[in-house]
Amino acid sequence: MFETFFPILILLLLAGTIALTMVFISIFFGRRSREGAKGEPYESGIKPTGDTKERFPVKFYLVAILFMIFDIEVVFLYPWAIIYRKLGMFGFIEMLIFVVMLLVGYFYILGKGALKWD
């Protein structure tokens, strides 16, 4: 059992060592600047613009949720494509139903104007 996971252990140790080495090298040799906009929160050295309590439009969240849904679709399509020949016609019909349901939802949100940004 140990022989199986030993290369993974070596890889993790090597990756951790490289990461820690890079962090310490940047601490010792990196340039430090605490002046001006560099000390401002959340803007990474860029002058802040606008109010911090600015509201995001609901469409932003709707597009994010839609992105997640279609990513999940791809996660289900890859394993299906790999074992497609073993499943035969049954697997094809099941995936066809799955894709048609997603397309119905996609056309519904297009009709509601969820993807329009004007």
What's the level 1 CATH class of the largest domain?
Mainly Alpha
Mean pLDDT across all amino acids: 82
Largest sheet report: none
Our estimate of the beta-strand percent is under 5%
The CATH homologous superfamily name of the largest domain equals NADH:ubiquinone/plastoquinone oxidoreductase, chain 3
Question: How would you classify the helix and strand content by structural class?
Answer: mainly alpha
Task: Return the CATH architecture of the largest domain.
Answer: Up-down Bundle
Q: What global shape is seen?
A: flat
CATH fold type of the largest domain: Methane Monooxygenase Hydroxylase, Chain G, domain 1
Distance between the termini: 59 Å
Task: Please mark out the parts with pLDDT under 50 across 5 or more consecutive residues, or reply none.
Answer: none
**Global Rg:** 25 Å
Can you count the helices? 3
Proportion of residues in helical segments: 55-70%
Q: What is the number of independent domains?
A: 2
Oligomeric assembly: single chain
Number of DSSP strands?
0
Taken in chain order, the helices and strands follow as HHH
Protein described:
The chain is mainly α. It has two domains: 1-48; 55-118, Methane Monooxygenase Hydroxylase, Chain G, domain 1 (Up-down Bundle). Helices cover 69% and strands 0% of the residues. α2 packs antiparallel against α3 (84-112). The longest helix is centred in the last third of the chain and has 29 residues, at 84-112. It is flat, with a radius of gyration of 25 Å. The chain starts with a helix and ends in a 6-residue tail after the last helix. The model has no long low-confidence stretch (mean pLDDT 82).
